[in-house]
Amino acid sequence: MSMAGNTPEGTGHVGTLTPNQATALKQFWEAIHNIQANGTVTLTHDPKLNAPPAPAVDPAPVAAGWGGGWFGAAAPAAPVEPVAEPPLTITLEEIGLSAADVKTALWNNVMCDHPDSLVLRFLRARKWHVGNGLIMLLNSFKWRQEMQVEDVKYWGDDDLEAAYPKFRKQLEMGKFYIHGTDKHGQPVVYLNVQLHRAGDQDYKTLERLTIYLMETGRLLIQPPVETVALVFDLTGFGLANMDYTLVQFLVKCFEAYYPESLGAILVHNAPLVFWGVWKVIEPWLDPVVASKIKFTYKNQELLEFIPANHLPESFKDAGLDKFVYQYLPPVQGENALMEDQEGKAKVVKEWNELSEKFDVATRAWIKTGGDVSEEREKLAKDLKNQYIKMQPYIRAKNQYQRKNASGKSIIQPDGSVVWTYHN
């Protein structure tokens, strides 16, 4: 995961790329441009791009626990000789997208991120295989189109409630909430499984809720951190709380559509009855996701990962934060700028102009070489600032942008995030 202020070279994030990783990134952008221009692209994979960076010294054994593997450290794998692959041809027609679809989905998905940050997620997820990463990216765009993800961002809570009954009820009851950060600066999502019963709401409502969680969570992640932590609180869990279909959907989202977004999973206080359920779930998990799971039982064990003054005091003898979740409902007029068509057209035009400039700078960067383009980096910052300026015109506010009784919001107007802890 990306650690705030401590992201070493070779981890595959913006500003930490090895020469091979930088080459793969350039090839990825070039493939995106070519497939938009021609509807198809043929890529020949260079197996050297898969090679991990050589450590300067012998690496120390990895500790068990947070990101250290499911059952602890694994023995280092033996070197694998690169294998040549036949050229891979990818066509938009086969995936079911047009060039315009790709461009729209790409820039809708960049949001406040550095554009490289988005595509690097897919490259890391496919171990720097450019062709496989591009297929994954395009399939995620197709899924976002089919699932109408932009509607979830555009509609307010009341609109989502009208279209998907009991949507707001899920938010009000605290079935899930995001609060504070763990020791690595990752926002922590708490899922209170005992509050869920599959038949209490339509499955489409749960799909919308999951997408809402994903898209809202992205606004709460602050660079250089790029991931979230999940705490599945199984206190009071019974078989009536189990929803296999929803679990499958959540796993698929993290693995295929929001790759490299999950930093860690804590499964907390699992009762004996859960282990029969676990035997069903375990085979569904990608090894990368499985490696991020840690089982905790006593509340004190949570403190290995979450500071006591960030952990809600509902975790009795461990948490010191007197925070109590309370849903903040929509405020009349909070989305008034979305009705300002003239203002919206202006900021969207400015965003489109900046994205075009970034594309031009990227093409020049690919041709001229070099690991970093100062112009691209400036444009990436300009794009972030422009998205923050544009957001009130194109996206409904969520509860993390609303002010609480003390007049404070978590997401600030400038896009920064300020958590308040009650100690």
UniProtKB/TrEMBL annotation:
Pfam family, one: CRAL_TRIO_N
Residue ranges occupied by any CRAL-TRIO domain in the UniProt entry: 164-323
PROSITE patterns: CRAL_TRIO
InterPro entries (UniProt xref): CRAL-TRIO_dom (IPR001251), CRAL-TRIO_dom_sf (IPR036865), CRAL/TRIO_N_dom (IPR011074), CRAL/TRIO_N_dom_sf (IPR036273), PITP/CRAL-TRIO (IPR052432)
Domain of life: Eukaryota
Transmembrane region(s): none
Protein name stated in the entry: CRAL-TRIO domain-containing protein
Protein source organism: Linnemannia hyalina
Lineage, uppermost ranks: Eukaryota, Fungi, Fungi incertae sedis, Mucoromycota, Mortierellomycotina
